[in-house]
């Protein structure tokens, strides 16, 4: 049964196209063979078939390994385990992968005796995790093989994972022993001893061994670092000083840097200022380097920090000695004096100085030293005696002056003998009559002794030698004060102040004093001159205003010059517009001069700044009267009276002019207050006629305000004064009417009618109207209508009567009567706006009440004549025409609206509506299409119109007209940015050409434009490209078809059809290399059929390619560089690389991170037998890039790395030296070398995006110093630009400026992240070109670590697959001579 089942499953495989289903069937067959039939061989075959479909199927891979494990076939098991690792390592978790490598290692070592392979397996395991078993096994294997470098490497790894510090140290000691005893390379133990010191900074053995090795190898910077690290470990004082001596010695003798030696010795002396050896050493170095000033300044700082007297005295002795050694003996005395001060008492110092003077009585320095001691002991008499003796022995004038000044100070402060102090100061001035300080003190002495005449003479002498204007001003001011207060003399006072003004005419105090002095003398002109100057000098505006006001008053009162006085008042007002007194004074002069305009201006400004309301109100009344009486400006007068009344509502003079004005303007509410005020203020004092007029006006105002009681009372009062006045009678009637006092109103109106002349028709109509209203309110409708008719007799269009009648007939729902009355209203109205509103109301009445749509339409048509451009009205007409199915009128009205509208969008909608009417109501499709097109011409975005055209033409199968419509629509959209719409139109047009008109060339052009628009809207869209490819292929345009398929793959690398179609096209043209590349891609994607797979395998390279040429710059730029790689960035970085290398090396050197490359490990690709080295040289030649130096280090972990070095170098670690085939190495090396081309090398130096950003903007900053860089990196860019500039040659800077300028001119667009990614893609392209195998590329790419900003491995592979079937790749293969031959 099971055998039959497997046969059935085998047959079903041929019928199942889906790969997942095929995998399930094969898995089931394999399980049956394994579990039921016990046929391991058959199961393995099916599992192999599964792997052909799914390259990394873990179930199959694990099952094969399990079978081989059960069969105990070591060789086959090893092969199965390698298959798991090779195919599916990326799917395994780390623990499972470790166990596979462990099993491989154990099988190789225990069963197959292949220790090299076992070691490789253990190493692969260690790449995942530092496993103790792997470390122990590898160490034993390498010890047996006496491969001591490998032993060292393993022990270093073990030391890293050990937790116990003592055990780690012992491990490193054993590593050092191996380097010394086994490898005979003592210097190799350096790293181990450094590790020990990291763990135990106090380890003397490691320190001494490292010191010995660094000295032997003359590694002075490393030795300095070691000694500094020892210092950081905190040794004792003695050891610390010894270490600093060693550092100084290394700096001076090893590095030739005496300055750094000086710094170290300073630290040593600071540690112990009593150390004579250090002092002598530093004095020698300071003398050699000329750093005495630095030495003295630093030691002075110690003096302030130290508290111990013995330390301070020792430092002072050093300082005195160093000043002498530096040639500044004069400074040494100060330090000796300081030492004296620090002695327990001054007795010793006194004794010393006395002994000196006994031996040399004229020793001025001893005298001065003795004076210092006496001064410190407050022995003032002895001090005076010593100083007087010193004056006698002093040789120079300067020395005598200094001593005399000390004597004067002593007399002033301690003996309080100001006369004696003055005598000493006079002696100073005898020696030097220009001594400013002596004058100042002498003047103080004469002030204290009140010797005014001597003081004035001293001031005058001082003035003769003074050079500063400020001092002279002070001296003259002092003289003026004396002649004012102590020696009164107005003339000399004025002279002193005039001297001040002559030097400084802006001196406020002097000008003020002179103005006052001249005023006291009666000299008005001089006083005014200084007052004016004082006003000009005053900075405060209010003070200046007050000053000019006073000047104006003085001019007006004392000189009678009112013209100049007014100018000063104007100046005062200019500085302070609120100065009311100046305004009033200026107004008075203007009024006296009949200058009413100016008077009005002053008066207006005066009232606006007058705070008191009543005063302000009076000023405003005066202002109003000026406007009314003098300027005939009633409008301004009214405003002034209004403002006056608002300021004081009890001001009758303000209220009276307002009454008639308000009544005439019918501003009843405003008139009420003023008229009541006037009535209240006047009482019964006014004449009867005036009282009658006031009460009548009050009644009219109250009536207008609806205050009927008040109106009745006012008219009644007026009636008492004149019973014959008809206005008063009418007022009484209107008040009664409003109060619904029908009898009272009837009486007054009857009296009024009997008295009214017949020609008073309007008034009679109004009376009859009110009588009709009264009857209507009493419920007598007929009588009401009779009165209304009488009103019409007097005035047939009396509007209130018409309104009343309309209301009556409306209540009775007699709509025709209502319409007739409204027509009468309309005929009587001349205002177009009111007529328009009436017509609308009549239209509403006919439409909604009378239900006569035609009458309503007539009204609307009449209204339209009044407002021919009223859109709402025309919309309403259209609606009524639609209801009456008057379609021609609908079209006419809509066309009118369209003609009036200037906005194309709105206008297009009107035309669209007309087209709809033609199509749907009149059945005229020709007219409809014509108007739809007209709407689209106005508004191409009105797609509904186009859809209706398309629908009508499609139904009619008028394909040529439809094609023309699409063409016309596309012309309308020439400037449109809606790419998706354009894509749809071109696509549809292409379908019309292809499917309806059989016009393939036109279809191709349409789909080309559709593709261009579609990609602008949706870059991933490919449908138009697919159609184009089919059309090109159908018309034998092979090149174009291939180009379209290539574009499709660029957008969707996982689409299989384009690969297969291109392959067939290339085979048809016998271009076998291109076809082979397509088959290679299909195979890589697991989509190749049997023939494609066979063709690929037939020419698949199994070893390094045999190239017949090499790449030049042209091939790189045209074919190998990524098409989106920014060439500006490339070129800018290329010009920066030489300087960047130097800067990077200096940075690493300063950080003590500069790599040290052992020349013993350098490999020459020409002569080396190492596979990697030979591959390295071959790849560099093929790619045409300069080969960096190669260092092969089997003793360290790592792959192939670029090392910042000069010249550029690469280091190959243990990882890359084994486990890779030569073909795999070509990919790794090719990718690596691509980073050494031009600007790409910058990624080796500065791999992070932030670093690249700083370097790029630094380059721009070098070329354009004024360029503004982003604020967040400004500091970094500035430092980098300064550093890089140091290492750039002028020609490099000039070239950089040219490129940067072009970059700026081209829009300055840069995306450094994208540039870095495209550089990486270029690198993997180079690798693929050299290995010609996508599977190898995938293996390496998937194993590489991901860095921030890198493309995802899957994206890299997509880029690589598309490149592998591109024209640039084909051309590169032909250039190198590796293309598959025909």
From TrEMBL:
Residue ranges of the TM segments: none
Protein name: Tetratricopeptide repeat protein
InterPro entries registered for this protein in UniProt: TPR-like_helical_dom_sf, TPR_rpt
Entries under Gene3D superfamilies matching the protein: Tetratricopeptide repeat domain
SUPFAM superfamilies, per database record: TPR-like
Origin organism lineage: Bacteria, Pseudomonadati, Myxococcota, Myxococcia, Myxococcales
Organism: Pendulispora brunnea
A Pfam family that the UniProt record links to this protein: TPR_7
């Amino acid at each position: 049964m099971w055998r039959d089942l497997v046969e059935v499953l085998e047959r079903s495989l041929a019928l199942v196209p889906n790969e997942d289903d095929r995998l399930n069937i094969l898995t089931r067959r394999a399980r049956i063979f394994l579990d039921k039939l016990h046929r391991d061989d058959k199961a393995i075959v099916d599992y192999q078939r599964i792997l052909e479909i799914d390259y990394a199927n873990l179930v199959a891979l694990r099952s094969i390994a399990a079978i081989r494990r059960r069969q105990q076939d070591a060789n086959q098991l090893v092969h199965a385990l390698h298959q798991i690792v090779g195919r599916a390592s990326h799917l395994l978790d780390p623990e499972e992968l470790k166990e596979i490598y462990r099993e491989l290692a154990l099988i190789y070592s225990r069963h197959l005796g292949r220790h090299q392979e076992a070691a490789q397996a253990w190493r692969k395991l260690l790449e995942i995790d530092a496993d103790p078993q792997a470390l122990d096994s590898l160490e034993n294997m390498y010890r047996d093989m006496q491969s001591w470098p490998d032993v060292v490497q393993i022990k270093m790894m073990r030391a890293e994972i050990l937790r116990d510090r003592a055990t780690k140290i012992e491990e490193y000691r054993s590593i050092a022993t191996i380097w010394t005893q086994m490898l005979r390379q003592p210097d190799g133990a350096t790293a181990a001893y450094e590790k020990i010191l990291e763990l135990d900074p106090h380890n003397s053995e490691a320190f001494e061994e490292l010191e010995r090795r660094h000295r032997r190898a003359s590694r002075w910077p490393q030795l300095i670092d070691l000694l500094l690290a020892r210092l950081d470990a905190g040794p004792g004082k003695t050891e610390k000083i010894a270490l600093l001596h060693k550092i100084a010695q290394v700096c001076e003798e090893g590095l030739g840097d005496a300055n750094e030696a000086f710094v170290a010795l300073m630290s040593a002396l600071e540690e112990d200022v009593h150390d004579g050896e250090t002092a002598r050493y530093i004095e020698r170095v300071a003398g050699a380097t000329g750093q005495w000033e630095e030495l003295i300044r630093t030691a002075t700082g110690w003096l302030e920090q130290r508290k111990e007297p013995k330390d301070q005295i020792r430092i002072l002795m050093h300082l005195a000695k160093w000043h002498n050694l530096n040639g500044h003996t004069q400074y040494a005395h100060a330090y000796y004096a300081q030492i004296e001060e620090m002695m327990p008492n001054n007795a010793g110092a006194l004794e010393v100085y006395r002994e000196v003077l006994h031996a040399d009585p004229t020793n001025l320095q001893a005298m001065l030293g003795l004076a210092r001691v006496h001064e410190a002991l407050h022995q003032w008499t002895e001090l005076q005696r010593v100083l007087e003796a010193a004056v006698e022995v002093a040789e120079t004038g300067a020395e005598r002056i200094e001593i005399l000044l000390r004597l004067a100070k002593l007399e002033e402060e301690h003996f309080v003998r100001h006369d004696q102090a003055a005598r000493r100061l006079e002696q100073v001035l005898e020696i030097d009559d220009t001594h400013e300080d002596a004058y100042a003190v002498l003047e103080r002495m004469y002030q204290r002794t009140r010797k005014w005449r001597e003081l004035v003479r001293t001031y005058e002498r001082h003035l003769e030698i003074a050079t500063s204007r400020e001092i002279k001003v002070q001296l003259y001011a002092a003289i003026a004060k004396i002649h004012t207060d102590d020696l009164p003399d107005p003339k000399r006072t004025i002279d002193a102040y005039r001297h001040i003004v002559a030097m400084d005419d802006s001196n406020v105090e002097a000008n003020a004093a002179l103005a006052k002095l001249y005023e006291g003398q009666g000299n008005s002109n001089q006083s005014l001159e200084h007052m004016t100057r004082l006003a000009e000098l005053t900075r405060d505006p209010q003070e200046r205003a007050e000053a000019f006001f006073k000047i104006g008053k003085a001019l007006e009162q004392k000189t009678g010059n009112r013209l100049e006085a007014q100018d000063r008042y104007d100046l005062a007002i200019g500085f302070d517009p609120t100065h009311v007194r100046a305004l009033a004074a200026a107004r008075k002069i203007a009024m006296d001069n009949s200058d009413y305009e100016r008077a009005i201006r002053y008066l207006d400004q005066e009232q606006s700044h007058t705070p008191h309301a009543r005063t302000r109100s009076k000023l405003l009344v005066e202002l109003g009267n000026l406007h009314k009486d003098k300027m005939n400006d009633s409008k301004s007068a009214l405003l002034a009276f209004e403002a006056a009344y608002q300021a004081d509502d009890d001001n009758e003079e303000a209220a009276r002019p307002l009454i008639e004005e308000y009544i005439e303007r019918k501003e009843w509410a405003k008139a009420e207050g003023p008229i009541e005020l006037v009535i209240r203020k006047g009482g019964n004092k006014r004449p009867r006629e005036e009282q009658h007029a006031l009460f009548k006006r009050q009644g009219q105002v109250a009536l207008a305000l609806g205050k009927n009681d008040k109106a009745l009372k006012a008219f009644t009062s007026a009636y008492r004064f004149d019973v014959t006045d008809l206005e008063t009678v009418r007022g009484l009637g209107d008040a009664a009417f409003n109060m619904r006092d029908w009898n009272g109103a009837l009486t007054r109106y009857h009296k009024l009618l009997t008295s009214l002349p017949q020609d008073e028709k309007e008034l009679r109509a109004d009376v009859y109207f009110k009588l009709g209203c009264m009857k209507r309110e009493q419920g007598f409708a007929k009588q009401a209508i009779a009165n209304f008719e009488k009103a019409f007799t007097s005035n047939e269009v009396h509007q209130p009567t018409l309104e009343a009648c309309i209301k009556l007939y409306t209540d009775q729902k007699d709509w025709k009567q209502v319409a007739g009355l409204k027509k009468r209203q309309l005929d009587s109205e001349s205002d177009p706006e009111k007529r328009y509103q009436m017509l609308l109301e009549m239209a509403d009445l006919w439409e909604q009440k009378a239900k006569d749509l035609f009458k309503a339409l007539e009204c609307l048509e009449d209204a339209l004549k009044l407002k021919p451009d009223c859109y709402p009205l025309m919309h309403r007409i259209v609606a009524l025409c639609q209801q009456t199915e008057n379609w021609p009128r609908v079209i006419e009205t809509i066309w009118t609206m369209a003609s009036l509208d200037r906005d194309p969008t709105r206008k297009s909608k009107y035309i669209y509506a007309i087209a709809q009417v033609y199509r749907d109501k009149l059945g005229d499709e020709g007219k409809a299409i014509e108007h739809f097109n007209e709407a689209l011409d106005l508004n191409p975005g009105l797609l509904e119109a186009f859809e209706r055209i398309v629908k009508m033409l499609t139904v009619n199968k008028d394909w040529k007209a439809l094609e023309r419509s699409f063409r016309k629509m596309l012309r309308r959209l020439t400037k449109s940015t809606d790419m998706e719409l354009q894509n749809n139109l071109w696509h549809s047009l292409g379908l019309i050409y292809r499917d309806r008109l059989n016009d393939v060339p036109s279809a191709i052009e349409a789909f080309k434009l559709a593709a261009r628009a579609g990609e602008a809207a949706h870059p991933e869209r490919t449908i138009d490209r697919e159609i184009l490819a089919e059309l090109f292929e159908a018309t034998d345009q092979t090149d174009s078809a291939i180009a379209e398929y290539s574009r499709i793959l660029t957008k969707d690398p996982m689409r299989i059809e384009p690969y297969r179609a291109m392959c067939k096209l290339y085979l048809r043209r016998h271009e076998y290399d291109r076809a082979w590349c397509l088959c290679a891609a299909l195979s890589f994607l697991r989509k190749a059929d049997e023939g494609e797979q066979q063709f690929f395998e037939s020419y698949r390279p199994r070893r390094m390619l045999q190239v017949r040429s090499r790449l030049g710059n042209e091939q790189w730029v045209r074919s190998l560089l990524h098409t989106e790689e920014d060439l500006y960035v490339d070129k800018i970085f290329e010009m920066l690389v030489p300087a960047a290398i130097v800067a990077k090396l200096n940075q690493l050197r300063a950080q003590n991170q500069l790599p040290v490359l052992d020349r013993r490990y350098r490999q020459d690709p020409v002569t080396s037998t190492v596979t990697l080295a030979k591959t390295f040289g071959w790849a560099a030649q093929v790619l045409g890039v300069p080969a960096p130096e190669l260092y092969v280090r089997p003793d360290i972990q790592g792959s192939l790395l670029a090392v910042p070095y000069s010249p550029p170098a690469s280091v190959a670690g243990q990882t890359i030296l084994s486990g890779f085939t030569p073909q795999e190495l070509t990919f790794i090396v090719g990718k690596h070398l691509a980073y050494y081309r031009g600007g790409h090398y910058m990624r080796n130096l500065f791999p992070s995006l932030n670093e690249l950003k700083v370097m790029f903007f630094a380059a721009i900053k070098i070329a354009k110093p004024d360029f503004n860089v982003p604020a967040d990196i400004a500091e970094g860019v500035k430092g980098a630009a300064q550093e890089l500039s140091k290492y750039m040659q002028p020609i490099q800077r000039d070239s950089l400026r040219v490129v940067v300028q072009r970059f700026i001119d081209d829009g300055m667009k840069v995306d450094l992240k994208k540039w870095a990614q495209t550089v990486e893609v270029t690198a993997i392209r180079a690798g693929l070109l050299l290995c010609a195998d996508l599977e190898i590329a995938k293996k390496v790419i998937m194993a590489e670590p991901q860095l921030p900003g890198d493309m995802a491995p899957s994206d890299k592979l997509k880029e690589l697959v598309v490149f592998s079937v591109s024209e640039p790749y084909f051309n590169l293969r032909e250039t190198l001579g590796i293309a598959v031959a025909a």
